[in-house]
Specification:
There is one protein chain. The protein has helices at about 20-25, 30-45, 70-90, 105-115, 145-165, 175-185, 195-200, 205-210, 270-285, 330-340, 355-360, 375-385, 420-430, 465-475, and strands spanning about 1-5, 15-20, 50, 55-60, 95-100, 135-140, 190-195, 220-225, 235-240, 245, 290-300, 310, 320, 345-350, 365-370, 390-395, 410, 435-440, 445-450, 455-460. By secondary structure, the protein is an alpha/beta fold. Helix 3 (about 70-90) packs across helix 4, helix 4 packs parallel to helix 5 (about 145-165) and helix 8 (about 205-210) packs antiparallel against helix 10 (about 330-340). It is elongated and about 85 Å long. The two termini are about 25 Å apart.
């Protein structure tokens, strides 16, 4: 969907009228019959009222009087989902938002919700045109042109991320992920380097190579670099994304259904960091940023790595493997230690890492932990509230390190049933030597049932969060 700024509404265009409240709607000049109908709707506490003017429709919306601040903006996004549903049911192709409240932030949140609701993944339907939404363009009357441009860039980045996550492994294996990212980054100014198996071996990335041993497809280590002129940061921001294109659990095979059947989404972290860099480039933000993506699938072939194996990692740490389904931390560890070469100012990794994080807080938020300063965590958490991708910080106390001590190696790759999300983070911490934040998006990256504008399947979580955080963290 294209968002655009307009300075004129045609008489036949559908209009979305944003009022500051019910009193202002009642005071507006309406024809007598419509006024009575609108009053009845307001008396029933409806926030969204559809008026058929025969040549076009007017949709009246008012804010939720109980909501304030960030929760009010989120209510406008979810209202956008309802507006989108009306538009699609009536086969509208276009609509223009009219701000009668003098609140551009409300209008922009509403537009964001509508545009995100319009996402569809139709690639594998035989007749996709029969399912495609008619709604294609959304205007904002006398809108803020610069903000609309940024919104288009963000929505594009989120939808790229969703597309990648929704792709099955029958198409999107590790080599294909590299090719797709190279194509998506073409003409954005983002440079792409794709390391093949021989190059990965030369870097001694034992974790990535071990997880890949059961696969029929070779691994990839993908490096995306956004190096704008006049960057505000000399030390780059490094984003690391887990790129397991499908996770069977390896020899520690997962049960199915309800576990393995959604594991095409196990590269959602990789998709999110790639989407974030594409968003940065399309927004033209002067922030030096690098994305590192270790990519492979995890399969139980006869040559697969096995419980009891000891793996030597990129930074020379030895790891005793006790669960082959704890593969995400194995490949992330290599990428995190590799990140040191860039002398980063901050490293953030995103990963669908643990069921423990999902069990702890469900799909309502993501778990974070790490070694970055408290004020950096505070800014990231606030960004989570702003875009409604909320975050809960878990501790990384030294006590948890004891749970991953090994009798035969430097560390083991699981710590038992207790505090599973934290021990996974504690494992990753051993491979960091810089300010670092880990985001576990296991509960938010992929939804089995539709949830408002987040949709069904891939949500694109992480992209809007990081773009908002980066904008404020670097004071842009």
């Amino acid at each position: 969907m294209l968002l655009y700024n307009c300075d004129l509404i045609l008489p036949t265009q559908n209009r979305l009228l944003v009022f500051p409240g019910a009193d202002e709607v009642r005071a507006h000049e309406w024809p007598a019959a419509e006024k009575e109908y609108i009053s009845l709707c307001l008396d029933s506490n409806l926030r969204l009222i559809l008026v058929n003017r025969f040549s076009h429709f007017d949709v009246i919306v008012i804010p939720d009087p109980i909501k304030k601040g960030d929760t009010l903006l989120e209510s406008w996004r979810t209202c956008g989902f309802d507006v989108h549903d009306i538009a699609c049911r009536n086969k509208w192709e276009e609509m223009v938002i009219v701000d009668l409240a003098g609140q551009p932030e409300w209008v922009e949140a509403l537009a964001e919700g509508i545009a995100l609701s319009n996402y569809q993944f139709l690639k594998y339907y035989t007749k996709p045109e029969e399912k495609k939404h008619s709604f294609a363009r959304l205007g904002i009357l006398n809108g803020r042109a610069a903000v609309i441009k940024q919104l288009n860039a963000k929505i594009h980045a989120v939808n790229i991320t969703r597309d990648l996550v929704n792709e099955p492994v029958s198409y999107l294996n590790a080599p294909q992920l590299g090719e797709d990212l190279a194509e998506l980054c073409h003409e954005t100014g983002i440079s792409v380097e794709i390391l093949d198996k021989t190059q990965i071996e030369s870097l001694r990335m034992g974790g990535l190579l071990a997880v890949n041993r059961g696969s029929i497809d070779p691994p990839r280590f993908i490096i995306l670099s956004w190096e704008p002129e006049h960057a505000v940061n000399e030390a780059p921001l490094v984003l690391v994304g887990k790129g397991v294109t499908f996770d069977t659990g390896g020899l520690s095979i997962k049960p199915t259904p309800g576990s393995m059947d959604e594991m095409k989404c196990d590269m959602a972290g990789a998709a999110a960091v790639a989407g974030t860099l594409i968003g940065l480039a399309r927004m033209g933000l002067p922030v030096r940023a690098i994305a590192l993506i270790p990519a492979t699938d995890n399969r139980p072939d006869g040559n697969a790595y096995a419980p009891g194996d000891v793996i030597r990692m990129h930074n020379n740490t030895t790891v005793e493997v006790l669960n082959c389904d704890a593969e995400g931390r194995m490949i992330l560890a290599d990428a995190l230690s590799y990140a040191s070469k860039y002398e980063p100012g901050l490293v953030i990794d995103l990963a669908t890492l643990t069921g423990s994080a999902q069990m702890a807080i469900g799909s309502q938020g993501s778990v974070i932990m790490g070694t970055a300063p408290d004020d950096t965590f505070g800014q990231l958490i606030q960004a989570g509230y702003t875009v409604h991708e909320r975050l809960v910080r878990f501790p990384l106390w030294d006590d948890y390190a004891k749970l991953i001590e090994s009798d035969i190696a430097d560390v083991k790759n699981i710590g038992g049933r207790m505090a599973g999300a934290i021990t996974a983070g504690k494992f990753l911490e051993r491979f960091t030597a810089y300010p670092w934040i880990h985001i576990d998006i296991a509960g938010t990256a992929f939804l089995p049932t539709r949830d408002s504008y987040r949709g069904l399947g891939a949500t694109g979580t992480g992209v809007r969060l990081l773009l908002d955080f980066i904008t404020k963290y670097y004071k842009l």
